[in-house]
Design brief:
The chain is mainly alpha-helical. The protein has a domain at 76-146 and 177-422. It contains 17 helices and no strands. Helix 3 packs antiparallel against helix 4, helix 6 (177-187) runs antiparallel to helix 8 (202-221) and helix 7 (189-196) packs antiparallel against helix 8.
Amino acid sequence: MNASSAPENYRRQLSVQAERILLYGVFGLLLFGPLAFGAVEPWSIFVVEAGSTALFLLWIGKQGLDGQMTVRWNPLFLPMGVFSTLIVAQLVLRRAAYPHDTVALALLYLAYGMLCFLVAQALLRGAQARSLALIVSVYGAALAVFSLLQGISSNGKLYWIRQPRMGGWIYGPYVNHNHYAGLMEMLVPIPLIVSLTRLAPAKVRAVAAATAAVMVGTIFLSGSRGGMMAIFAEMVILAALLVKQKRGLRTAIGIGVFLAIVVGLLVWIGGGELSKRIATVGPGHTELSGDIRANINRDGLRMFLKRPLLGWGLASFPIVYPQFRTFYTNFFVNEAHNDYLQLLVEMGVLGFATMAWFVVTLYSRALKKIGNWTGEMSGAVTLACLLGLSGILVHSAVDFNLQIPANAALFYVLCTVAASEPFVKPARKRRAVRSQPPEETLDPRETLSRSATNF
């Protein structure tokens, strides 16, 4: 009996190790992307695609070790599948203006899909989410500190070494400061929500609040007005939620300390220059003006009206746009600077409707899980994801963060986490719930005591 059970135990150990590699491998790729200039170059795109494929093959191998195929469903998979079908239809029906670019971006979207699928299969427990929150918070803090140092001592090069080929407004590891802001919009809510919950000791919450404050400060110091607008939207949503749930004095004090750190950081480092950055684009930086963006929007709508149903094809905007441009500029308009407009142009009304379905499903699922976010890991993680996603959706109205692979991959993975089922409770907690007598048979004081110990 012992001899026969040994191989089974070995397979079980290998399966556990494979699950750990899957989870941390996915987030390793997500954290690699921003460091590689947003994963916009062919070599970094290859790393994301090859890494996603390798992890997916590992998941298949894990199913063999388990002796059965287990797939955990996520409601976002259905609109994802429909969107993929529309891309295939563009290619089959020859509606893509430049099929080569459509296929190339479709492969990248396939990598995003595999990362989302793997997260849905591997992120199952609150303990995993706790470890990832720590990793992401440390990563965000380190990246923010690096960006502060680079902003103070910049020589116009990425990492003080790499000269961008087409110029830009460098901040952190990104050529475009708006895309750095987009990354931080998604990362900031993680330490911020940790600082407002009862899921960590007081010292950890204080450090998390300081971390979030530094990260928010760099968004303002980067000069991204879209990023400032997105962070403001996130804070308004969080404040509205706190007012609705009538949180106590401790939460209000925590937010006050957070804002004080942010303001202090901005005054100390930004000074008078910050107000100029908020009012207008700083001198010496090249960026599209508001008039040019308005012209692009009008031209883009004309493009959409030419092919309203299936659009011009995924990734076709820079190829087709010169035919519709109505103004002169020295800039190469490679994106619409409005993710919603670009989606309409490239995927038509069918693709836009599918993404609207995706977003509605995301929010309807996530809002059901955040009721007890201060004391429950599933609710806290969902709220952190939802705040970050709301910020990037606001920012997408004036920029193209979701055309940057590093930011897009993180966005879709956070969507998947937010819409997933609540985390599995530890076995001892499940046994405690099953053994607990019906609520109405308990003395009220005993019920209150038991409820308190659950937190």
